[in-house]
Amino acid sequence: MKKIRKAVLPVAGFGTRILPATKTIPKEMLPVVDRPALHYVIDEAKEAGIEHFIFVTGRNKGAIEDYFDRAYELEYSLREKGKTDIYDQLNNDTPRPGSMSFVRQQSAKGLGHAIWCAREIIGNEPFAILLPDVLIKSKKSCLSQMVDAYKKVGGNIIAVDAIPHDQVSKYGVINPKKREGDIIQMSGMVEKPSPAIAPSNLKITGRYILQPEIMNILENQVAGINNEVQLTDAMVRLMQNQKFHAYEYEGKDYDCGSKLGYFEAVLAYAKDHSEIGKQARSMIKRFSQ
Questions:
Q1: Cα 279 vs. chain centroid, distance in angstroms?
Q2: What's the Cα-to-Cα distance from 257 to each of 189, 283, 287, rounded to whole Å?
Q3: Cα separations in angstroms, 141 against 158, 176, 249, 267
Q4: Which helix (H) or strand (E) holds 35?
Q5: How many beta carbons lie within 10 A of that of residue 131, not counting itself?
Q6: What whole-number distance in Å separates Cα of residue 103 and Cα of residue 10?
Q7: How far, in Å, CA of 288 to CA of 107, rounded?
Q8: Residue 233 in 3-state DSSP?
Q9: Residues 6 or more apart from 279 whose CB is under 8 A from it?
Q10: What integer best gives the mean pLDDT of the chain?
């Protein structure tokens, strides 16, 4: 069983659900308290042992690459002004040279196509996928929990969490077959089913561990919903030959690709922030009255 060393982060989307904020700023770079949403996703992956990050980007996404680079003028200014705590934090957050790669998705052909664009860097290794507009707040990072599950069962793993049954038509859900604790053997996936026919209330939550054979399937995967190459369609095909498990993680997810989801994430992370948490909780309480 090979170690999960690499992660793909598809960041080429336009962020149309939160326009006009994303007209000139990548949605992944919108701040959640004091750092971009993407920063939290990278921290989650680092905790899980990810060593190489592959960003699938598009036009006007240069700010992402710049964010993870050195900022020499800023560092010099911080040193000159004696702001060593901020300087040290920036240095600690700077990735190791060669630990990040950036590839372009020239056309918006769907999530499956975006993942396929990373095929040469992934090679013949299992890898993680983290959708960066989904933040998952938990004591132990969601991907770390999934890696622990992967060490037990191998194969392919999808993160899921339970939602009210009357909301299943908004999401993709899994068809469970057999359950052992938080690990659930799957027999299928259904995209946005009506509550009357939904096989479960376990929604797919934007974190995956997949085997490299998915790339061969994505290479000739025909377009599906919205005339896009859908990752779900390719996973259904791979499921015919490989094991798939869902993992019901501990934590709370926030959809930062929507206005309300983004606002909720800001509140959730602000109230637990080590520096401003107490004041933030007081402020939230005042506004709720």
A1: 29
A2: 23, 25, 24
A3: 14, 24, 9, 19
A4: strand 35-36
A5: 23
A6: 10
A7: 44
A8: helix
A9: none
A10: 91
Token representation of residue 212: 């490299």
Q: What is the mean pLDDT of residues 118-123?
A: 95
DSSP secondary structure of 134-186: EEEE-SS-HHHHHHHHHHHH-SEEEEEEE--GGGGGGSEEEEEEEEETTEEEE
User: What end-to-end distance do the CA atoms of the chain give, in Å?
Assistant: 54
Domains detected in the chain: 6-288 (3.90.550.10)
pTM value is 0.91
Mean pLDDT for the stretch of residues 81-92:
86
pLDDT tens figures, 36-57: 999 999 999 999 999 999 999 9
Out of 156-160, 168-172, 183-187, pick the least confident: 168-172
The answer to whether 103 touches 65, Cβ cutoff 8 Å, is: no
Question: What count of residues does the chain have?
Answer: 289
- pLDDT digits over 54-79, tens only? 999 988 888 999 999 888 888 889 88
**Contact status, residue 14 vs residue 25, Cβ threshold 8 Å:** no
The mean per-residue pLDDT over the stretch 135-156 comes to 95
**Hunting for tokens 């000139």 — which residue is that?**
24
With 80 as the cut, is the pLDDT of residue 197 above it?
yes
For residue 90, what is the enclosing H or E element? helix 84-93
Task: Tell me whether strands 100-104 and 52-57 are parallel, antiparallel or unpaired.
Answer: parallel
pLDDT at 276: 93
d(C-alpha 92, C-alpha 51), whole Å: 15
